[in-house]
Design brief:
It is built from nine helices and twelve strands. By secondary structure, the protein is of the alpha/beta class. The strands form three sheets. Strands 2-1-3-4-5 form a five-stranded parallel beta sheet, sandwiched between helices.
């Protein structure tokens, strides 16, 4: 699992970033000032750092400069409310790899994170496209799914649903959570669309295999285990 460090003094933004990144399969650690960022991040085992410029102790610019001065080449994505060309140039000159201006959409941040990680380690990225559980393998790049070496054809929505399960193994997922994450809608208690698609998926990944992966918790939801 790829490891990302966040240095952001706004606790609400830091928690939002952490939740979004963890939902996309990253391991995340947070610090809230520049001094702690240097103590935690310098020459540590991180794949990417997301650093706010305006922080107490040391600014994000100072953190980035000191990392580079100590030959730490971990990719750095700077966050700031300052969006002028000169501000961006200052950040990039300090050694940052990318620059994102607040407010930003989480989809854009996730896209930039993915791009920086691909640039940093293209070989490792191939493995990051694969999600595995037991004998089931999903390739999120080629959209291929196999179980016990057998190809399984899924619809677009079935693929999204299976990916959600694979990113949350051994965790009870409520119908409301599935609706919000896989369908991006508020759950309507009067519809059985979630149950219908779970059954579609079961028929393809469980029906012809002795070991079942999708389990129902009555009146609670589903668990992939």
């Amino acid at each position: 699992m790829l490891k990302i460090g966040i240095a952001e003094d706004d606790h609400k933004i830091a928690d939002l970033l952490k939740s979004a990144l963890e939902e996309n399969g990253y391991q995340v650690e947070i610090v809230f000032n520049g001094i702690d960022a240097m103590d935690r991040f310098l020459n540590a085992n991180y794949d990417l750092l997301i650093v706010d410029i305006m922080m107490p102790g040391l600014s994000g610019i100072q953190v980035c400069k000191r990392l580079r001065e100590n030959n730490d080449q971990t990719p750095v994505l700077l966050l700031t409310a300052m969006g002028s060309v000169d501000d961006k140039v200052t950040g990039l000159d300090a050694g940052a790899d990318d620059y994102l201006v607040k407010p930003f959409h989480l989809k854009e941040l996730l896209a930039r994170v993915s791009a920086l990680l691909r640039r940093q380690n293209p070989v490792k990225n191939i493995l990051d496209h694969q999600l595995t559980f037991e004998d089931l393998i999903m390739d999120t790049s080629s959209k291929e799914v196999t179980r016990a070496g057998k190809n399984i054809e899924l619809s677009a929505k079935e693929f999204v649903l299976l990916e959600l399960f694979l990113r949350n193994p051994n965790r009870l997922l409520s119908r409301q959570y599935i609706a919000e994450k896989a369908w991006d809608i508020n759950f309507d208690t009067g519809t059985n669309v979630i149950d219908v698609y779970v059954n579609f998926l079961r028929k393809k990944i469980d029906k012809h295999f002795e070991r079942k992966l999708i389990h129902t918790k009555i009146n609670m939801g589903y668990i992939f285990k």
